[in-house]
Write a structure and sequence with these properties.
Strand order of the largest sheet: 1-2
Strand content: under 5%
Number of strands: 2
Length: 322
């Protein structure tokens, strides 16, 4: 555990140190994000804020993991690293299309879902065939092997979590803070299980995420974009699957569930009723803004819920009988 914590601290320091040159480069390249007309009017002042902030998380994560994790003897850690690289690259391409003065737009959601599904199938096969994790752990009940059906579960977890984290990324420090808390929770679970390399990896991402939040704190100097959101969501899903505690992900990541659910309900209800809405604006964080909450209030309260949910998730993980 000490090694995992030190690794997280180093990742934080490295992220803060690298943040300034990365931010300067993004500004020099005029990598400012355009703001959708469907977002609250108060967000229009954020137009031009540099995106691609996910680089501040992933560069330190790769560097520290290469040194701190004995990946030669724990090659399974290459799976979440690979997910970061692949989904981060896809997010980077998507972010290119959302820059100001660009007309082509980002990747479509249909493409993203199809891409994530294929990636989820590949990751599920690796988890099942090579890492040999295929169980469902149910608090107070026990652990049961799922066989090849585990691949289907892995796809659902990866696609769902990645999409939900991307939806959550809409306010300063919202996605960064809530994923930070989720990774810490799974780091603790990994340590309890004796998977110190998983715990170390989770704390490295948490530390790098903290370094990113140094620049993303309101008012944000940089936005993570899908470069960060897709990679955070996919790697969180894989870490949850590797611990076998994926069933607790909706608890630990309750904010992601609420955000994604509000978006789906709003879109579905709008189409069914031909224009009526459940929320003033979706996803949920925008609804709270519309009813008068300040952005910092929405984010702080989401963090508080995420912390309580993480505590509950870790407690439930301890309730799985051996």
């Amino acid at each position: 555990m000490i090694h995992a914590l030190y690794s997280g601290v180093i990742a934080f320091a490295l992220a803060v140190a690298l943040g300034y040159p990365i931010l300067r480069y993004l500004r020099a390249q005029k990598a400012g994000k355009s703001i959708s007309q469907y977002q609250p009017q108060s967000h229009q002042k954020k137009a031009g804020t540099p995106t691609f902030g996910g680089l501040m998380i992933w560069v330190p994560t790769f560097l520290v993991t290469a040194v701190a994790v004995d990946w030669w003897n724990h090659k399974s850690i290459l799976l979440p690293l690979g997910m970061i690289g692949i989904t981060g690259a896809a997010g980077f391409v998507d972010d290119l299309g959302t820059l100001q003065y660009r007309r082509q737009g980002g990747l479509s959601w249909r493409f993203k879902i199809a891409f994530l599904t294929l990636l989820g199938i590949a990751a599920g096969i690796v988890l099942y065939d090579h890492i040999e994790v295929e169980s469902i752990n149910i608090p107070y009940v026990g652990s049961y092997e799922l066989g090849a059906f585990y691949i289907v579960i892995a796809v659902l977890v990866i696609v769902g979590t990645t999409s939900a984290v991307a939806v959550t990324d809409g306010l300063d420090a919202l996605a960064g803070g809530t994923t930070l808390i989720a990774f810490i929770a799974y780091g603790i679970i990994g340590f309890i299980q004796g998977q110190e390399y998983v715990a170390t990896f989770a704390f490295i991402i948490a530390g790098a995420n903290l370094g990113y939040l140094w620049y993303n704190a309101h008012p944000a100097m940089v936005i993570m974009g899908d470069t960060g959101a897709l990679a955070l969501g996919s790697s969180l899903a894989v870490v949850a699957l590797m611990t076998g505690q994926w069933l607790l992900l909706p608890v630990i990541g309750v904010i992601f569930v609420l955000e994604a659910l509000s978006n789906a309900l709003q879109i579905g209800y709008f189409k069914l009723t031909k224009g009526r809405r459940i929320f003033k604006r979706a996803p949920l964080h925008h609804h709270f803004e519309e009813i008068g909450w300040f952005e910092t209030q929405v984010v702080t309260r989401a963090w508080l819920i995420a912390i309580v949910a993480a505590m509950l998730g870790v407690a439930l993980a301890l309730e799985v009988p051996d």
